[in-house]
Structures are given as C-alpha cells and as structure tokens.
Write a structure and sequence with these properties.
Number of strands: 18
Structural class: alpha/beta
Radius of gyration: 20 Å
Strand content: 25-35%
C-alpha cells in the first residue's frame, strides 16, 4: 500500500490551497478529486476582498469587480455610492480551480488524482473507487457539504442551507443586488450576481426554518415580480453546510464546508475555505503554528450565525428588521462597517 505524508480529499479552494502550502514544505501530498476535472462547482460565483488578501488572483480569473450594490427590502432600497475599493469579485469557478491546480505543477511531491472517489475512510488509509488503498500520516477533509471524512468522524451535518439558482443569459450587465423580504424568503434572501454572459439569480435559506417547497414557491413568485425571463435559463440547486464542530481531530483535519465554516447568514464560504486550507497546512508543517487566523474567522462566523438565529426567531417582524437595516445603511459609519465586514 503506497503511503503519503498527507492525503487531501476534495480539490476545491480549500483542498487546493492546502496542497499548495504543503507543496512548499516538500511533504508528499496526494490530492483526490472525484470529478473528471478540477474546478467546476455550482455556486453564485462571488469572492470577497479578504480572499484576494490571502492569494494574488490574476486579473484573467476575475470576470468583474463590484463596487456598487443595491440592497432591496420590502418597502425601500439602498444603493452603495462612492465605494473606493471593490468589495466583491465575480469569478468563474472552473477557471479559478484550474488556476489553483496549475500552481501545484511546480511541486514534484504533490500529486493530483481526478476521478478518484473516496469510498472508504479508515484511521490509517483511504480507499478510492472501491479498489485501491492509500495510506496517510495526515488526512484533510476538504470534500464539501457531504464530506465522507466528516462522516467517518461521526459528525452529522445538522445545519445547512438549501439554494435555488437560475443562470439567465444577459450580456454586459453589472447588476449586483441583495433582496431581503419575509414574504418570499422568510429568514433567507435572494441575490442577483453578474457574470460574463449571464446573471446568477438565486436564493437560500435553512430548510429546517423555511420548508423547501415554501422557499421554492416564494422564489418563483419573486422571479415573476422581478420579470425575469427563464425560458433560456439553466436551473441549479446546491447545499451549503454551516454546522461547525471543530477542524482538528488528531491527525485528521476538516476545512472549508467539510468543517461547516461557511456563513449561515450569507452562504459565503470561499474565504473561510482558502484560509482554513492554508492554516491546516501550516499546522501540519509546524504543530505549534498559532490558531489566531482561524479563531478570527470563527469569531466573525459566530456573529453572523447569531444574527441568523435572531432572524429565525423574529417571525413576522423580520421585515421590520430588514427595513431598519436599510435605514441604518444611510449612516456612513454603519454602511462602512457592514461593507468592510462583508468584504
């Protein structure tokens, strides 16, 4: 049985970033990806400024920079003005993943294996495609909301978001909007994100708080109100795990969505994925590596998840909360704090 210093399950942003940092140390690394190619993933496709501070993403990967957003509530809306720095960057997830993988080519000790479905996890090895066993000293689960590594650790996902999204053909649009309305989304929200050649229009909510059929019905009522033409649109749906229970379990680690590090409030998870992948790699290299950066992510996530719980409990007065948020957005200090915190 061939063995590696580190086996990483999942070649998303977290797994690829983890492999990159480990590659710099000279450790033998195997990165397993069940899909035929690295990168493609169903998501809204926005990354924040915090992610660009972690790694220098080339301009060719960024479809457009967003420095103007419209936030829409049940009775009023607010449009950001005079934002000096972009707070969101739209990317194609396939291009982003392919670029991350290309960075690994300079590391001889890093191997990427596609079409490698992990079918069994053991304390000493993983089995791929129900046939081949590979040993490890350290195992990193970066395999998303349905992580097999997390299941091996007996950590069921009890908190996750469900999303519905349409990719609607649209040329040259820069329409970036967030819609909050209890009538359609309850404690969730909807988004309109611009990409090259299309708009990503979707919504999300916790299905334990907002029944799936109720959310889907509200979403389509909202789409009709907004007069979106879905005749040529591509429909998508995907889960987002936000049930954090820890990231280090002896010689096994969880990062990104596998660890439940995505925000339950916004669903944003790429920054937490990149940072946790990097920090886990540094911890494997140096067991005394400080946890400050992950603790900061967890602190921010905890604040957002607490606000989400408030929305869950608010019931019919949610729209009052949404109206208050939009009123406060007119305050420059509050506006800047929200923008900086999100981006």
């Amino acid at each position: 049985m061939k063995s590696y210093d580190v086996i990483i399950v999942g070649a998303g942003p977290a797994g690829l970033r983890c492999a990159e940092i480990l590659g710099q140390s000279g450790k033998s690394v195997l990165l397993l990806e069940k899909k035929p190619e690295t990168g493609p993933k169903v998501c809204a496709g926005g990354i924040t400024r915090k992610s660009l501070e972690l790694m220098e993403i080339p301009d060719s990967i960024i479809e457009m920079e967003i420095n103007k957003a419209r936030i829409v509530g049940p009775t009023r809306d607010f449009t950001t003005q005079g934002v000096k720095k972009p707070f969101t960057f739209m990317v194609n997830r396939k291009d982003f993943g392919q670029w991350q993988q290309q960075k690994l080519q300079s590391f001889e000790q890093v191997t990427v294996m596609n079409q490698a479905q992990v079918t069994t996890v053991d304390k000493n090895f993983v089995e791929i495609n129900r046939s081949k066993r590979l040993g490890y000293r350290y195992l990193v689960g970066a395999d998303g909301a349905t992580s097999i590594v997390r299941r091996f650790l007996k950590l069921p996902v009890k908190k996750q978001l469900v999303t519905f999204q349409y990719l609607i053909p649209e040329k040259n649009s820069r329409r970036f909007e967030i819609h909050m309305d209890n009538r359609y989304f309850r404690s969730g929200y909807a988004w309109i994100f611009p990409h090259r050649g299309h708009l990503a229009v979707g919504c999300l909510a916790d299905p334990k708080k907002v029944p799936v059929q109720v959310l889907k019905k509200g979403f389509h009522q909202w789409l009709k109100k907004e007069k979106f033409d879905l005749s040529k649109a591509e429909y998508q749906s995907f889960p987002i795990a936000y049930d954090y229970r820890g990231y280090r379990f002896g010689n096994i680690f969880l990062c990104g969505e596998a660890a439940g590090l995505a925000s339950g409030l916004t669903g944003e998870g790429i920054h937490a994925a990149l940072l946790s992948g990097e920090e886990i790699a540094r911890t494997i290299i140096n067991p005394d590596h400080p946890e400050d950066k992950i603790k900061a992510v967890l602190h921010y996530k905890k604040m957002q998840d607490r606000f989400l719980e408030l929305l869950h409990m608010a019931g019919p007065v949610r729209n009052l909360i949404f109206r208050t948020i939009l009123y406060l957005m007119n305050n420059k200090r509050f506006n800047q704090k929200v923008t900086d915190g999100f981006s």
